[in-house]
Amino acid sequence: MKAMRLVAASFWCLMGMGLPTMVLSQPVVIHSGAGAVPMGTYLGHLVAGVDQAGVLEGVRFPIRSGMVPGVLSEAQARTASGLFRPEWLAHPVFLVGTDPLSRQWLSQHRQALIALGASGLVVQAESERAFKQVQQLAGGASLAPMVGDWLTTTLRRAGMQTYPLLVLADGRLTSSPPRAAGASPTAAPMQEARP
């Protein structure tokens, strides 16, 4: 009871001094060290609506990651084995740009990406309009603009310079989603786009 009166008295004392009792602040970083996970893939649903005006407040275009359109080789994928720990991944994550190769890849693999529950990050987009066009092409797949550079920096340090690519839920990298059991190979092999 005495503690309650002390809390109430402190509150009224602060109010009387004109100090605000609630202060708006920047988001709190919970952990920023080994084992920290970027939040980008968890925010894709916020920008999933192609009919939504704009993207996300604060996202600036152009988006550039230092990666380039290309095809991930099997050797590169093997080199990256273990790069991403499975416990970091809530679901598969794919990286695309707004370039012709990314558009072709997204069209070719859209249904498989949706079936996997994969979320996409756009690592290259010259404008909001280009981002929205790729978002529309993604159909029902969640797609968000890349904010920050942790993921792409990690990939580049491991020798991965190209996108589109898919990081599977077990941490493996691949240039295309795994085929479902019994699926027929209907898609033609992806050709590298020429600018």
Automatic annotation (TrEMBL):
Signal peptide: 1-25
Keywords: Signal
Region called Disordered, residue ranges: 176-195
Chain segments annotated as transmembrane: none
Highest taxon listed in the record's lineage: Bacteria
UniProt-recorded name of the protein: Integrating conjugative element protein
Species this chain originates from: Hydrogenophaga pseudoflava
Taxonomic classification: Bacteria, Pseudomonadati, Pseudomonadota, Betaproteobacteria, Burkholderiales
